Amino acid sequence: MYILQKLMNRLIVLNKFGIFSFTFFIVIFSSVVMHLIEPKTFPKWFDALWYVMTTVTTVGYGDYYPVSTAGRIYAIFIFLIGIGIAGLAIGKLVEALGAHRKRKEEGRLTFKGRNHFVIIGWSEKAKYAVSEIIETHPNLEVVLIDNLTITPITHQNVHYIQGDPSIEETLIQANLKEAKSVLVFSDDSIHDSALADGKTLLIVTSVERLTPHIHSTVEIKKEEHIKNFRHAKVDEFVLSHETVSRMAVRSAFSKGITEIYTQLLSHKEGENLFEVRKRAEWVTYKDAFDSLLQQGATLIADGNDLSINKKLNDSIPDDARLYIICSKDVYESII
To answer: Ranges for the RCK N-terminal domain (predicted)?
Structure first.
């Protein structure tokens, strides 16, 4: 009994690989031994393996069992050693799964996916952004970076990375080099707009230094800071305070205009804004405008150029980024 106790104590301190390796050895070795001891009871090697597996997992169907003295003696060995080792292996497996889940929730796992969307900074705005991405692109993987001790959102396509986003190691952990786009939200806990934009600029500088090719969108508090972000080669800017204020003022003078903004900004209601590729038969903007209008869509812009109606007879460049307003059903029929 002392020997068995010493053996189990040694097994407990083994790592997971050692436990699984030893369990595999015991199962295979016992299957071979039982097949050799009782070839009539276990005519096939798989029959012996079936018996050993049902025994060590305490299932015990009773369809196979040893009848000779030698077979029963070895079966006692399986009872004493095999069941304990199998239980230990199962316990280690459950422990490993629990540890993996804990590391995932704490954001300590490295993301290995590609063409994902990275969001830096958790807030209510980030929450709505994640919800919008999941709603419009259900297959897109999202990686969230923040300093929270545990993930603020649980979804199969959302992966959390805990760390300082201005540090290169954190961005590498999020696999930023193979990401499709990055969205940086301003830190709402910083009430000074200059300090908040300064922190955002530090983060986006690290992002652009590591992955200069990535498409970056940044939330900025003060409009006069845009020139600093342009110097950092940021692609898109969102002015949080100014945008809300201007929308409020316009709604005061033009009743119902906020409904238009809401429809264009959200994919959950009304007409939406979509991007379409140029077709071979669309030579001029008028060709595209008329064709899309017949299908129920309105062409409004090429990139950030909203003056489509002033150049309908101009040729459409091959790299044009055409934006239309239509319902989701119409968009899906167009693409």
So the answer is: 114-239
Q: Are 220 and 194 in contact (CB under 8 A)?
A: no
- ∠286-290-295 over CA atoms, to 5°? 150
**pLDDT tier, 246 (very low <50, low <70, confident <90, very high otherwise):** low
| Whole-Å CA distances, 198 to 148, 211, 222, 227 | 21, 20, 11, 13
Cα angle value 282/285/289 (rounded, 5°)? 85
Residues in the chain: 335
Cβ neighbors of 279 (< 8 A, separation 6 or more) are 288, 291
* 69 has a pLDDT exceeding 80: yes
What does the pLDDT look like over 95-116, one tens digit per residue?
A: 777 877 888 899 999 999 999 9
Angstrom CA distances, 122 to 6, 33, 84, 105, 143, stand at 51, 59, 46, 15, 11
Give the pLDDT of residue 1: 46
Query: What are residue 115's phi and psi, to 5 degrees?
Result: 55, 40
Distances (CA, A) of 250 to 106, 239, 256: 43, 16, 9
How far, in Å, CA of 281 to CA of 110, rounded? 46
> What DSSP line would sit under 208-274, residue for residue?
HHH-TTSEEEEEES-GGGHHHHHHTT-SEEEEHHHHHHHHHHHHHHSTTHHHHHHHHH-SSSS-EEE
